[in-house]
Amino acid sequence: MRLSVRQILPLFVACALSLTGCATPPPADDPDAVAEYKEANDPLEPTNRVFYAINDALDTVILHPIALGYRAALPTPVRTGVHNVLNNLGTPVTLTNDLLQGNRRRAGDTMSRFLLNTTLGVGGLMDVAAERGIPDHPADFGMTLAVWGLNDGVFLFLPILGPTNPRDAVGFGVDSFVLDPWSWVGQGNTVRDLRVARAAVGAIDARVMVLDDFDRVKAQALDPYATIRSLARQYRTKQISDARGDVTPQAVKKSP
Amino acid sequence: MIAMLNRRQLLLAALSTVFVAGHAMGDSTDAAQALVEKLSRDLIGVVNGPGSAGEKQAALEKLIDRDVDIQAVARFCLGRFWRTANPDQLKAYGDLFRAVLVRNITSKVGEYQGVTMAVGKAQAREDDVLVGSVVTRPNNAPSRVDWVVSAAGGAPRIIDVVAEGTSLRLTQRSDYSAFLSRNNNDVQALIDAMRKQATQPG
């Protein structure tokens, strides 16, 4: 992961600079259009759409076929096992963020899950904790920043990361390079290879998880970019409100 | 009239208003919960029941027509363009919206084989009622699905489905509004694109 981000970041910055794309705000005398523009919160839309198109093209020729092959080649229990091991390896990041969010119950869940799944679950292969009523929950530094009161800012569509925003993109960097001990513990070729392997398998696993949903969005949406923008933002809002400890069902925005 | 009432009568009147309102509110949450529970049983029955894919799709279509306020959802999804479209366009849009919705929901019926659904508590909100549920598909983590029920059109009917925090109608409206803004806000262009969606094979 570290290598690929390093290689791609300069390219990304160069592209971003060469595209002077900013969405043109609608005229102020059209309140409906202005409300729509604000709701989208996507002033960099032209640039974002370029990255969406690049990502989508790369996905179509690389990740999507790999994910399809992965799903076809390996039976469900094996794929679930791989997913569980990756999840278990993510414990330090999850636990640190649970604690930074001040969520003691969740931190306790994360610790119990790690202990149960590493021992009874044979090194994390089986999610025995979920079967015992301690399900997995997401926790990342973008969420932590949100719980601390930082707003998401504008919508961004970035290479690799996909739909995100400045806050969550920074959060991703902090998770990957600061909070994740696997990114700085150990050295040498073996460690580097393991790191690359984990990142590669992680990317495939993440892609497989959304294979059908994503195919469906692309097939059914008139504007897949806008649909993904809306879905990503709503989903993230729900994750954050859950992390804040909201127990009431997710409220839907009222129609204007 | 009010001047003629004494304070006790006024108090009584006020109290009864509160009770009636409270009672009506209890009714609407109960009705919403009953609606979702029945729909859940019927849905699971169709999806996991016998019959060919075609038969299941036809049965699902009936359930959608019975329990979903399709025209209210259609209207929400068109947003501000509902006011600018002409009557012919609104008619065409409404019909196509139904066709595309039914198609999107029923086309993947086979993938839901083995699904289970646990309906939770109903919760009254300002204009509608939210009924929570947990939907579990084999080999998938359980997902939280909330059903939004409104009696604005008379009988209680579903006006939105919120899966893991993502609202179906909000997402659909974003899609349409983005499409329209890239097509000169021309509702006819939207209708033409929807007609293509409704008639394409697969």
Summarize the structure.
Chain A has about 260 residues and is mostly helical. Chain A contains twelve helices and two strands, in the order H-H-H-H-H-H-H-H-E-E-H-H-H-H. With about 200 residues, chain B is of the alpha+beta class.
Set down the secondary structure blueprint.
The complex is a heterodimer of chains A (256) and B (202).
Chain A: H1 2-18, H2 31-40, H3 45-73, H4 76-89, H5 91-100, H6 104-119, H7 128-131, H8 141-147, E1 156-158, E2 162-164, H9 166-179, H10 189-209, H11 211-220, H12 224-243
Antiparallel strand pairs in A: 1-2
Helix pairs in contact in A: 3-10, 4-10, 5-6, 8-9
Chain B: H1 7-48, H2 53-67, H3 70-78, H4 81-84, H5 87-106, E1 116-124, E2 129-136, E3 143-150, E4 157-163, E5 166-167, H6 168-181, H7 187-199
Antiparallel strand pairs in B: 1-2, 2-3, 3-4, 4-5
Helix pairs in contact in B: 1-2, 3-5, 3-6, 5-7
Question: Features of this protein?
Answer:
heterodimer; A: 256 residues; mainly alpha; two-stranded antiparallel sheet; 12 helices; globular; disordered C terminus; B: 202 residues; alpha+beta; five-stranded antiparallel β-sheet; 7 helices
Could you characterize what this model shows?
By secondary structure, chain A is mainly α. Helices cover 67% and strands 2% of the residues of chain A. Chain A contains twelve helices and two strands. A two-stranded antiparallel ribbon of chain A has the order 1-2. The radius of gyration of chain A is 20 Å and the shape is globular. The N and C termini of chain A lie far apart (42 Å). With 202 residues, chain B is of the alpha+beta class. Chain B contains seven helices and five strands. Chain B has helices at 7-48, 53-67, 70-78, 81-84, 87-106, 168-181, 187-199; strands at 116-124, 129-136, 143-150, 157-163, 166-167. In chain B, strands 1-2-3-4-5 form a five-stranded antiparallel sheet. In chain B, β1 and β2 form a beta hairpin. The radius of gyration of chain B is 21 Å and the shape is globular. Chain B starts with 6 loop residues before the first helix and ends with a helix. Chains A and B meet through α2, α11 and α12 of A and β3, β5, α6 and α7 of B.
